[in-house]
């Protein structure tokens, strides 16, 4: 005779803390740091949504790498600077799965120049992507997390937002603002079993930093090298893990000791 399962057993099997039951969204994950984060989250068993705007080829490469490694995921195309697109995309994920457990706000751009030469559009473009993009995606996501009483939000900020960087007033302002938003939101949602943390990379080997002359910068880094995207991804995965369930409102630097 078949024994009826205890409902509590089913509840335990579907615990949101189990990565195999989690849905993750990583913005800007078609290349670089975002791509590494998506790969590492998928390697832990999470179903990962790979966000892109124009770089569909890179997003497909991310998905192919995930699937080759035995992971699960799919592409989702939307612009984080567009509040309508962002809200509709998050809503589509939640409608399909009934939950969104992990959000990594990684999408970001630079438009570097000295402040005296910076056009208003260069300022606004960076703020819109790096800071307002966080708001556009996180607001609908956190509503769903509150209902489920579980969530892990990790924001990718920058050492520039902590120490400043000449020629990056717009970028530093956007990333410093993201740190403040991380700490404030963490206080708002902590009682709902939602953690909000930030990972702050220094100089990491990406397309963005390859354009820079880093010889003198590397001399100033105590570890005398640039970082790797996977080292940033490891910090993100830690914040999403059960081991970090009592950590919220924190900024973890992955910067070789430059700060």
Task: Describe what this molecule looks like in 3D.
- This protein has about 260 residues and is of the alpha/beta class.
- The protein has one domain (about 20-255): Rossmann fold (3-Layer(aba) Sandwich).
- The protein contains 10 helices and 7 strands.
- It has helices at about 5-15, 30-45, 55-70, 85-95, 120-150, 160-165, 170-190, 205-210, 215-220, 230-240; strands at about 25, 45-50, 70-75, 100-105, 150-155, 195-200, 250-255.
- The chain has a 7-stranded parallel β-sheet with strand order 3-2-1-4-5-6-7, sandwiched between helices.
- Helix 2 (about 30-45) crosses helix 10, helix 4 (about 85-95) runs parallel beside helix 5 (about 120-150) and helix 5 (about 120-150) packs parallel to helix 7.
- The longest helix is centred in the middle third of the chain and has 29 residues, at about 120-150.
- Its EC number is 1.1.1.100.
- Pfam families: adh_short_C2.
- Homotetramer.
CATH topology: Rossmann fold
- Overall mean pLDDT stands at 93
Tally of domains:
1
Strand order of the largest sheet: 3-2-1-4-5-6-7
CATH architecture: 3-Layer(aba) Sandwich
CATH class: Alpha Beta
For the termini, the CA-CA separation is 65 Å
The Rg value, from CA coordinates, equals 19 Å
Shape: globular
Structural class: alpha/beta
Low-confidence runs of at least 5 consecutive residues: 1-13
